[in-house]
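**Backbone geometry record:**
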Amino acid sequence: MHVDEILKRYASGERSFQRLNLQEAELTNANLSGADFSYTDLRQTRLGKTNFSQACLREADLSEAILWGTNLSEADLYRVILREADLTGAKIVKTNLEAANLIKASLCGANLNGAKLSRSLLFQADLRPSSDQRTDLGYADLTGADLSYADLRAASLHHANLDGAKLCRANLSQRIQWEDMQTDLSGASLQGADLSYANLTSAILRNANLKGADLTGAILTDVEFQGAIMPDGTVHD
């Protein structure tokens, strides 16, 4: 089905567009809120500024897709493939990304507040601030997620759930370019998380729960641990 046909059918009230082959298609600045693109091939598509809020993209393949500023709020992206996709500045608020593949994806400046990312793969993902906004993962559910080698410098993860997450060699340090912007993990839950060899220089971990976390080889220079529950269960003063 051609892009123009999709937009025409959407305008007439149709919402089901499952299992299509739309590889390399361009759907920028379109309104497709509430549409169902489950199992659709969207590899290398250009979807910048498109409104996919409350849409269904379950198990769709968006590898290497460009989604600059795309609105995916409250959408269902269960087991979606976003490998090496560019989601810079995207709105992903309260989105279901459980078991999603975001390996090497760029999420610079994206708003993931309240997103569900449990069991998702974020290996080598880029979650740094963009030129104009901070990546927001506040209150996100990242239980069991793989963030190994991810770049989380200056990201906001306040009150995020990272229980059992893999953050081996992740970079959670303060970015030199933003001297007043520290990686914020205040109130986050990191019970049983793997933070081995992670760089946490100047990170904020006030009131965080690190019970049972693995901090082997982690760089903890100037970390703010006030009120945090440490791996051995003691509370840092």
About this structure: The mean pLDDT is 96.
